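Hi P.,

Sorry for the delay on this. The queue was packed all week, but I finally got your sequence through. Input first:
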Amino acid sequence: MRTIERRIGLLFAGFLLCFLVIAGRAFWLQGVQGAKLASEAAYQQTDLVTVPGLRGSLLDRFGNPLAVSEDAKTIYATPYQVRQPRQTAAKLAAILGLEEGDVLKSLTEDSGFAYVARKVDLPSAARVARLELAGVGELPDSRRTYPQGELAAQTIGAVGDEGQGLTGLEKGQNPVLRGSDGERRVVNDALGEPIRLETVSEASDGEDLRLTLDPAIEKKTEEVLGEVGETYAPKGATAIVMDPRSSQLLAIANWPPVDPSDLGSAEPEDLIDRATGFTFEPGSTFKAFTVSAALEEGQVRPDTTFTLPPQLHVADRIIEDAEARPTVTLSVSEILAHSSNVGAATIGLQLGSEKFSRWIKRFGFGRPTGVQFPAEERGIVPALDEYSGSTMGNLPIGQGLAVTPMQMAAGYAAIANGGILRRPRLIERIGDEAVPQPRGRRVIDATVAEQVRTMLEGVLEAGGTASAVSVPGYTLAGKTGTAEVAENGTYSETKYVASFIGFAPAQDPRLLVAVTVDQPQGDIYGGSVAAPAFGRIAAFALPYLGVPQE
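Then the structure:
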């Protein structure tokens, strides 16, 4: 009997000890570690998901989208949860248009998370979801699309996988376009299935940008530039179309073209917008500024004549015209129409280095134009104290300095519009706010501008360097340029930049076109390579814009 009682007592003591251990453990878990464990449990039952804010759109002047963001999905894998990786990879690859081997690599990564595909359109993502593949999920995303294809691709630019602007306006206006991401908390049950969605912070969309680009003129300009590329196989080419009255940019075309949705297929230099990123010695197109300065300073009149020798010696430099000739007497108008190097240098020497240096700066060379585009080159202009003995033989004929096509277009727009230099305008509206139109500043008198316009008509008349170019019903004015490429401290004998800048109607300009062709093959002259492109663009754009024939 005592033995039984002793056993019952020991059993009771054992139960009591177990109870005390369990009670102590419960007190430890709830009283001491309760808050920590509750936090960990909540963490294991919730997920934070980033909700991307839609990037603002880039629109043409009529409000039609050039680049727009739309909802998309990121397809991801949790590799250790994937069953039958090979079969899963085959199904995903077929829907997503990917290589099966690349998908399989993502599905079998030694990690808890792997991207399978990003920026997937919603219909394709829905097809993936319907397969209910183990270990495969999706996250909200957005992607950039281009409703007008490759139109103005280098100007618009490209966007990276993280939604950041990489090139062009996408980069330069990234803070305006990007917006901000939001967050949502997904609450899961014990089996990991979502049961509730909570908004932590709202996403906000970026602002739209309405550009000044006209899609019809842009398309035609790119088409013409493509023909130049096919014919002359240059290193690159660009064309700018502008309304010189307001400096609104109607087209900025580049060749070769690029696909902004497929950056991997483009060479890095082809992503550059050559209108603002290409610097070159302008050659004879610069002579219009030499003549403008001399007229403004009262040094010459359009009918002032000069007796010009076959060669002009300036320090160690010998200057000749493009074609050998005897001594001739030419007026200032004829010097410009025939593009005489000796004549332009003679005018520059008469003007003097100090005044000439001041006029180069006055026309805006050596600094960015201020166009609303990132990383605009400023060009290279020697300071007055850097001039050598031969500098004034070089600068008046467009050698010894470097400019951008946009700087040249802005300078010629001042001649076309009556003497006002304005910042080229590319962005018309940001969101609902209109971008103020640049006021500009007067650089030459309206009378001088009219005189130069009249002289530039001679370039496209009989005997001029672009006499083969015409547009029926309109009087054209402009200037050709054929410049040797400077390399290794000297001028190449085989590489040239051919250019033409012109406007119409000559005495009431409504359209300005600047064409620059870098290192054309087979033909090198601005009058035969670039000027015909100007003519074809003008022949389309003038009637399209409703400019009445003269």
